[in-house]
Design goal:
Rossmann fold; alpha/beta; binds flavin mononucleotide; 8 helices
């Protein structure tokens, strides 16, 4: 969950994403709440890419991410970007993200497409394997400005097919069944790394 904000709707959005995933894929879903993780900003003396990690919470976070076969970032758009808590959680680690299949699910007034673009760029720099489908869940003005209750199954009905596609693509990556250019590129990359 990319938002740790007081009064956030992220838990409802993430629960719905997991529910759709359980209904349409064979993957297991665990919701990870960054609010439950004590990851103070900038408390690692070494660059994460070089290690080692000095803090016990960073080592625990590292193990958590290593254990996942794939990841789904569920993140709101904040000022055309994504929340600092998510950036901080990403930046605490480095090699753990490499090659992890990733689906990026964003939400916001217009679905959070700018937030998705930024996350995609950061994930690409970490060599994550990002699915092409990009569900952008549109929040109504009533939810954003008036605190109206969010009902994901109703409010995000139009984006449900895109979410389903993203999670099915994620499953294909986990199972090594990606097709077309993505598969060719992965093979080339693997060969390249093998030759280096
Ligand atoms: C600091 C802040 C900045 C925001 N910026 C944007 C924005 O640029 N575009 C947008 O569509 N919504 C924006 N919103 C609205 C959020 O997308 C909306 O409040 C959403 O519910 C936030 O997710 P959360 O409730 O899980 O924290 C912003 C909200 C906050 C708190």
């Amino acid at each position: 969950m990319g938002s740790t904000r007081a009064g956030r709707v992220c838990p409802q959005v993430a629960a719905w994403v997991a529910q759709v995933g359980r209904e349409h894929t064979t993957l297991e879903y665990e919701i990870v709440d960054l609010a439950d993780w004590s990851l103070p900003a900038d408390d690692e003396p070494a660059i994460p890419a070089l290690g080692p990690y000095a803090q016990a919470h960073t080592r625990a976070w590292s193990e958590k991410i290593q254990r996942a076969d794939a990841l789904v970032f569920v993140a709101p758009q904040f000022n055309w970007g994504y929340p600092a808590a998510l950036k901080n959680a990403i930046d605490h680690l480095y090699s753990e993200w490499r090659d992890k299949p990733l689906a990026i699910v964003t939400y916001g007034g217009h679905g959070g497409t700018r937030c998705a673009k930024q996350l995609r760029q950061v994930a690409a720099s970490l060599h994550m394997r990002i699915v092409s489908a990009a569900p952008a869940l549109a929040l109504s003005d009533a939810v954003i400005r008036e605190g109206a209750a969010l009902e994901p199954a109703r409010d995000f009905q139009a984006q449900q097919p895109s979410l389903r596609r993203a999670l099915l693509q994620l499953q294909m990556l986990v199972e090594g069944r990606e097709r077309g250019p993505a598969r060719l590129w992965r093979r080339l990359k693997t060969t390249f790394f093998a030759l280096r």
